[in-house]
Structures are given as structure tokens and as C-alpha cells.
Amino acid sequence: MNRERLVKIIEDLQECITDINECLDILENRKDDNLVIKLSRSSLRQLFVSFHTILEDFCSIVLKDIKKYRIGISLHESLNILKENGVIEESTYIFLEKSRLIRNRISHRYKEPKYEELFEHILRYNNNFEDIVKISKSYMDRL
Questions:
Q1: What is the model's pLDDT at position 67?
Q2: CATH for 3-142, among 3.10.20.30, 2.40.50.140, 1.20.120.580, 3.20.20.70?
Q3: Domain residue spans of the chain
Q4: Residue ranges of the alpha helices (H) in 66-125?
Q5: Rounded to an integer, what distance in angstroms lies between the CA atom of residue 23 and that of residue 45?
Q6: Which of 2, 105, 116, 123 is the most buried (most CB within 10 A)?
């Protein structure tokens, strides 16, 4: 496993989560500033998509590490393999699958989720984002 690539993934995940939480804070506490709310909603969508782009990168290096990587593998397939191989727990898998579906709706612009759906999803699973960082950091010990 490429240590430098893993370090960058962890840094990017942490930065993305911090930015997501800043958006959540603004959206929960600055209800009187329409421009800031508009920008924060837009940022939240983009950060959510960015998180999944970073997640896909992490999945690919773990799949390579456990010798299960294939060119063109989907995130859905990757998550199944990671669950089957004990890399992620069932609860993390459920979070990531739900998130993946929302991310697809945003990225591919079909049946796009309303802001409220995305907001509620992120609030509900907020701790799970950090779990991905913990899992990523656990791979640092293996290098």
C-alpha cells in the first residue's frame, strides 16, 4: 500500500468532514443570512460528493491491498467486498450504501435529493463519516 497516498486520503477526508461540519453549523445557526445559507447548501452538496470521491480512492487502495481490486469495479461492488472481508462493519456498509445512492442522485442529476434530505442524512450519519477516517488510519499501522 502506498503510504503517501494513504496519508493524503486521510488528510482529504478530515478536511472534507471539517468543511461539512462547518456547513452544518452555519445552516443550523445562521438562519438569518440568506446568501450564506445559499452558499452553504451548495457547498454541502459538493463536499458530500467530494467525500465519496475520496472514499472511492481509499476503497481502491484497500482492494489492492487485499488482492480484490479489478479495473472498473463499482463503489457498490467495492463496499460489498470490503464488508465481506471485514474491513467495514454492517452499520458502516449501510451508511455508505445510503450515501452512495444520494451521491449518485446528486452527481448524475436524476431525482436529485432536496436539500432537506441531504441535510438530514448527514446529520443522522455524522459519526459514520469519522468512522471512515478511523478505518483509513488503521491501515497506517499496517505499513
A1: 93
A2: 1.20.120.580
A3: 3-142
A4: 75-84, 90-107, 115-124
A5: 10
A6: 105
